Amino acid sequence: MDLIFRIIKFGLTGLLGMAIDFGATWLCKEKLKINKYISNAIGFTLAVTNNYLINRVWTFQSTNAHWGTEFSKFLIVSLIGLGLNTFIIYLFHQRKNGTNFYVAKCFAILIVFVWNFLANMLFTFK
Q: From 36, 67, 101, 117, which residue has the greatest number of CB atoms within 10 Å?
């Protein structure tokens, strides 16, 4: 049962992170007129930092005193997840019969969610 609650917490944290990512990217790009790629990087960075902090305290209840190392691991897992997401979308949208982009993105999100949860549980917050 603890695992199910942990998965739910991880998912809720991810939804908040997605809102932060999109919101910060929109604010930087549309209102502050910052370059779209820099805006995207800002949104991603804020979301990853937020997700790390919430997952550390709420989802995994880490007491690791070496939070810098732990955050680095979380960032590595997140960057691998971003790469997997991009690769899966490319694979299914560009290579496999031209699957609809958003269908490919939904499939990628599901796979990357599993990757991120397991990698963080077994590697980052073990």
A: 117
